[in-house]
């Protein structure tokens, strides 16, 4: 209920601002203004329906309003952003829109002696300037937003980029040098992405010929009954040492226990606060995985101490953890490399600054003390089918 109220309030306020700048300021009172107001009210209801009701119904029903709802959500966000930026030139040109002779309203002589500037009305020329500026800003915002969202949809719905990088691990046996881990996260199968998306990802991963595949959370937005067929292609992943999975926050919105059983059936091994040994001959390293922090709400939270208990400190350890913020505990315990997702690389520039406030890294390779952190941008999207400045990605991490 609180979520619905907050979302509804924000959506209403943003649409009220859009109505002011795109409709009221650009039209005269009359039919056009009324129609514009009704259209924006309908779009506000569509966004609220998509964000709130979409969480309560299955992907099959939700897709009917999720596509238009989330596309408009992306446009809405960028219209709001661009119009907010354009408030600066509007303010700078405020004097220009008011310049020129004024027409005094009829008043008595005593009233005329005490009249204030507000008692005068702007001339038709001033009104024309005001409307011209408002329409110019509206057109500029519309063109910029449509261009950003259009390009962002091409990026989000196209094939992920394949990013390759090498990471040196100080305790790695030389015989394991060149070991390749394909990392994918945030596939987000649901009302907008289905089986075809999974098949493309599986094909691209197999083409990299990895030694191991790591899926680091947020695979699904729906139940096994709703999305089981969309996930099935994961059983076709091919690697020398198998496919492993850790939960993301969205698994806990989607019935995580049935999903763990379904993934095992498909040959994908969940690591739930546990580790396994990866061997190549006599050389090896430990692969550990911990649950997402959102699991705490259902008594299934992360337990790094349990995952690392009893390991040989002479062997390197690679940790799968959905959220980059979990690296703080990993660094304290001497983890060599943490592989994460969750951030989508920010997904929508410049809104990535908000994500950066709560996560130590948005994407790429960084280091916390002696622990390497690699964050992949994810192969899907959440919400708007739009990625601006953060293309979808499959990563191949080569150990050195």
Q: What features would you describe in this structure?
A:
With 400 residues, the protein is an alpha/beta fold. It has two domains: 154 residues, no CATH class; 237 residues, Purple Acid Phosphatase, chain A, domain 2 (4-Layer Sandwich), CATH 3.60.21.10. Helices cover 42% and strands 17% of the residues. The strands form three sheets. It has a six-stranded mixed β-sheet with strand order 3-14-4-5-6-7. A six-stranded mixed β-sheet has the order 8-9-10-11-13-12. A hairpin with a 2-residue loop joins strand 8 and strand 9. It is elongated and about 90 Å long. About 3% of the residues have low confidence.
Overall morphology: elongated
How many separate structural domains? Answer: 2
**CA radius of gyration:** 27 Å
Structural class: alpha/beta
Fraction in beta strands = 15-25%
Name of the CATH first level of the largest domain:
Alpha Beta
Give the CATH architecture of the largest domain: 4-Layer Sandwich
Provide the spatial order of strands within the biggest beta sheet.
3-14-4-5-6-7
CATH-defined topology of the largest domain: Purple Acid Phosphatase, chain A, domain 2
Stretches where pLDDT falls below 50 for ≥5 residues?
102-106, 115-120
The succession of helices and strands, N to C, reads HHHHHEHEHEEHEHEHEEEHEHEHEEE
